[in-house]
Design a protein that fits this description.
homodimer; Uridine Diphospho-n-acetylenolpyruvylglucosamine Reductase, domain 2; Uridine Diphospho-n-acetylenolpyruvylglucosamine Reductase, domain 3; 20% strand; globular
Chain lengths: 475, 475
């Protein structure tokens, strides 16, 4: 161990290695949790070569490693366990190249998402993955977690935009897929395993993304509707009318509006009559492509599908309408002890699923206030459930919600990732064959389980001897 | 072996098993090659359960299996080697469900692509992957090969549209990912390894795809330009003006136009002056979104970027313009012995790369006529090179082209797949770490190498002992 730290000191220098306890503590946390364990050290390589050599030193010494980007994760996936080092990408930062003809951008993994977005926009292009933490979240972190956000409806998850990766594998070998090819069927796609792997298979050092034409014109409306069923009808109607001009379709349940507008008075209540609210956004490259939006909303109201609506007439008004949706951050801060679920089901099942969760939680004594808000067009809801802060309450509430989730064939995490906080609930959405396949996937790339070993899976806690050799289901 | 065939006969019945030599021969070919070896038998399961049990029987008997869809492949990837059985999905056919609210479609793997497209369109939706072989190619086959086609520029490869798969693994276990979740970050994405795996990791039995809103309105122009550089400028201008209304941007080199219009007189020459030709298509949900197309083309001509142009004024005229591009099939049939390369490089490098290939091939005695046509917006060119039919010529020409390809960091196959015909050229675009990773990927899922064992990789021909334990590059 001491020999490894000595070798790392020589390799990385004073700027590249943090061992002072006072400086280590912020590397023990993400945006959801302050971990109980300090890392042994924080490695801050500046080049791929340094990263590769640092990983090789740790691998040879058997030291667990936790890759870390902007620490904006919400599942504890970048929080180091006891005895691990953190490998931070914070010094591997900066846009390396923007190719306007091929519409690609290459950046160091530690580059903040917002810097990537701005570099694209400076060329009249766009990198359309967008999340609230864009100023701190790194492009490498968003790839490692397959980040979602509010524009998934239109542009898909991060996976869709990744054109190339450079990865330091858990033994220090460098896997480079940075050719920038839009089409490449020369064998298995070696980028895919690492996208959404939460740092458990390797350390991403460089990223190449496909950019798209910027869509600077937008139209935004906040709608009041009877319930989720009406909102779903509205979604289908919007898609039918505007196709993929539709860029966001965010749902706010009455309990959310009540919390934001009444309980904490964070934003004035937009409508006199409480109901279900939807933020509907269109985006286009030309203003004319948004024509007919107001008329169409008028038709929906005449047809009785929408009860009330506010259309933004300026960018300021757009920001004010978005503030209602973005107040979820403030709710999160003010609610006190609570679980923040990140669930997805099939798009058409979301209303019934939420209803079933509400019903179930009413029978759970530990469950306090329930608040629901989400990406309705993607079948993704964030359910916040207040409790008394005890572990027993957390377990009781989680068990109830995941029990309903299993009935609806949903996922325990739509976009936040498994990390450490959802690891033990994975089987609520993965059957035994899938669990075996997940473990096997981990073992290919990280046979010694040194890379972020407590996230997604804990190989040491499971019997993995009979992986592929399962009898077929019907046997 | 006999015991296995007996067990398969009992399991699948007379309709489910072909062993008559006269009936076997068509299962020994794909669209590119008639294999020299007849399969031992063709298994035609009708359900996932039958497929699972059939695979388990073969696995236990150590019989290699080759999954087969519509046999429209162009790389020999579905052609069985000696001693293997074919597992055909031809009886697992039909659309199972279309969900218009979630915009998803579920089908048996053996369903023809065109049937999937038509089922989507019947609901005002679209499945946007489109290839010439749509009537025979199966949805399972397009997933297994990550099919591309003419609309990749707008909609991406097949990978982007796959929402779920059901797969029989090489030991008969069934891996099911059919929850239909748009967002699911609950561990590694277990669909990804199978997309583009060409039947080497398992047998796809069911597919769920994400549909998109139909875009029934189109505008199409055939343009004559100086060269590829002018075409690339035109691509950038089209993207800048129309964003993702741009749905196709197909390039035809002068040698292609000469072959089609002069050598074989398949289509009348569209322009008096020979040059580089581009088919530029826009698609939209409303006719008004295509406004300004003619004016914009006029501006390009005034600016000297485009030399001449023909805009289609009806669907009939659109078909006539497309005929020029689609004549590649007839060229393929009439050219005599030739190699059909399926290459990709970064989008902005394609012109220089083709130029370098031309230059190189002029020095190769074995190389006859060279014809270039491709998906310019994706950096993908199909280069046809005539030769005298000898193996030596094939090797000499291939070596020359792939040598140039390596300099340009391209891929030996953009969309047709590796199969058997490009397997031995993989290292032209994959470095040693990648080759190790590819082999490891195969070994996880198919440790006995029973599933399509001669495609993509031949594990038995390679030393795979030191997979992940590579020293890092700089060592």
């Amino acid at each position: 161990m001491t020999m490894a730290i000595d070798a790392l000191t020589t390799l990385l220098g004073a700027a590249g290695l943090i061992t002072n306890p006072a400086d280590l503590s912020r590397y023990a946390a993400d945006a959801s949790v302050q971990g109980p364990d300090m890392p042994l050290a924080v490695l801050r390589p500046k080049t791929t070569d340094e990263a590769s050599k640092a990983v090789a030193i740790c691998a040879q010494a058997g030291i667990p490693m936790v890759p870390q980007g902007g620490r904006t994760g919400l599942s504890g996936g970048a929080v180091p366990p006891a005895g691990a080092v953190v490998i931070s990408t914070e010094r591997m930062s900066g846009v390396i190249a923007v190719n306007t003809q091929a519409m690609t951008l290459t950046a160091w993994a530690g580059t903040p998402l917002q810097v990537v977005q701005e570099a694209a926009r400076a060329q009249g292009l766009d990198y359309p993955v967008d999340i609230g933490a864009r100023g701190s979240a790194t492009i490498g972190g968003t790839v490692a977690t397959n980040a979602g956000g509010i524009r998934v409806l239109r542009h898909g998850m991060t996976r869709r935009h990744v054109l190339g990766l450079e990865i330091v594998l858990p033994d220090g070998a460098v896997l480079s897929r940075m050719r920038g090819l839009v089409k490449d069927n020369a064998g298995y796609d070696l980028c895919q395993p690492f996208i959404g792997s939460e740092g458990t298979l390797g350390l991403i050092t460089q990223v190449m993304v496909q950019l798209c034409p910027d869509e600077p014109f937008s139209a935004l409306a906040l709608l009041s509707l009877r319930d989720h069923a009406a909102a779903l009808d509205c979604l289908v109607a919007a898609r039918s009318r505007f196709g993929d001009r539709l860029s966001a379709f965010e749902g706010m349940w009455p309990d959310y509006l009540d919390a934001v507008c009444t309980t904490w008075s964070l934003v004035p209540a937009p409508f006199a009559t409480p109901g279900f609210a939807v933020l509907l956004e269109l985006r286009a490259r030309a203003d004319a492509q948004l024509d007919g939006f107001q008329d169409w909303l008028g038709e929906l109201m005449e047809a009785g599908l929408v009860d009330d609506g506010i259309v933004a007439r300026s960018h300021d008004e757009e920001r004010r309408l978005w503030a209602l949706r973005e107040a979820v951050g403030e709710v999160d801060a003010q609610l006190g002890p609570h679980i923040s679920f990140d669930l997805s089901v099939a798009v058409d099942q979301l209303g019934q699923f939420c209803h079933a969760c509400d019903r179930k939680l009413r029978g759970v004594q530990a469950a306090g206030q329930v608040i629901k808000v989400g990406h309705l067009g993607d079948g993704n809801v964030h359910i916040l459930v207040a409790h008394d802060g005890s572990d027993a309450s957390v377990t009781a509430i989680s068990r109830s919600v995941y029990c309903v989730l299993r009935e609806y064939n949903g996922s325990v995490t739509a976009e936040h990732g498994v990390g450490r906080s959802k690891r033990d609930w994975l089987t609520a959405c993965r059957d035994p064959v899938e669990m075996i396949a997940l473990r096997r996937q981990k073992q290919i790339w990280d046979p010694k389980s040194l890379m972020n070993p407590h996230s997604i899976l804990d190989l040491r806690a499971s019997n993995t001897a009979t992986l592929i050799r399962q009898p077929h289901r019907s046997a």
